[in-house]
Automatic annotation (TrEMBL):
<keyword id="KW-0805">Transcription regulation</keyword>
<keyword id="KW-0804">Transcription</keyword>
<dbReference type="InterPro" id="IPR013249">
    <property type="entry name" value="RNA_pol_sigma70_r4_t2"/>
</dbReference>
<dbReference type="InterPro" id="IPR039425">
    <property type="entry name" value="RNA_pol_sigma-70-like"/>
</dbReference>
<keyword id="KW-0238">DNA-binding</keyword>
<dbReference type="Pfam" id="PF08281">
    <property type="entry name" value="Sigma70_r4_2"/>
</dbReference>
<dbReference type="GO" id="GO:0003677">
    <property type="term" value="F:DNA binding"/>
</dbReference>
<feature type="domain" description="RNA polymerase sigma factor 70 region 4 type 2">
    <location>
        <begin position="122"/>
        <end position="174"/>
    </location>
</feature>
<dbReference type="InterPro" id="IPR014284">
    <property type="entry name" value="RNA_pol_sigma-70_dom"/>
</dbReference>
<dbReference type="InterPro" id="IPR013325">
    <property type="entry name" value="RNA_pol_sigma_r2"/>
</dbReference>
<dbReference type="InterPro" id="IPR036388">
    <property type="entry name" value="WH-like_DNA-bd_sf"/>
</dbReference>
<dbReference type="InterPro" id="IPR007627">
    <property type="entry name" value="RNA_pol_sigma70_r2"/>
</dbReference>
<dbReference type="InterPro" id="IPR013324">
    <property type="entry name" value="RNA_pol_sigma_r3/r4-like"/>
</dbReference>
<keyword id="KW-0731">Sigma factor</keyword>
<feature type="domain" description="RNA polymerase sigma-70 region 2">
    <location>
        <begin position="24"/>
        <end position="86"/>
    </location>
</feature>
<protein>
    <submittedName>
        <fullName>RNA polymerase sigma factor</fullName>
    </submittedName>
</protein>
<comment type="similarity">
    <text>Belongs to the sigma-70 factor family. ECF subfamily.</text>
</comment>
Amino acid sequence: MDDAGILALYFARDERAVTETAGKYGGQCYAVSYQILRSHQDAEECVNDTYIRAWNAIPPARPTFLGAFILKITRNLSLSAYKAARAEKRGGGQTVESLTRELADCVTGNPEAMLESAELSRALDRFLRTLSQKERCVFLRRYWYADSISDIAQQCRMAPGTVKSSLHRTRAKLKIFLQEEGIFG
């Protein structure tokens, strides 16, 4: 079923909307959540919570891109779950913090707070449009989906060193772009 049909089910308050959403976007939602949480059980819980949030948000919301809307809900729920678990145990590994640190040179101040900023969000959207498809894919796989360098290399058919170099160059471009936009000095 296409997104318009799924949205029509939500607006009709037909519970099949959740089933159709799960069928179409469930795998992607799980992948995003698992990349952040690294726990099958927690990822499944966040995905199920995504459907509840979507049900409660649509209507009145009428997302233009249902997939992006659903994945954003999943990502936000997963980040919240990650922060809650992190506050409890203070563990390590490839974490949201490590990815944030990678971007810290581009985004001065408090990167986590700034990522919530609408202005920064619009600027990042404009910046991503300046990148080639391959650069955009690598950047988003790393900083949106939280994929590892080796996973990105495999998905994009690149050497891990090439992925690292691409990310380094893209972060440098982002820093210059944000400075030119007057967002960060």
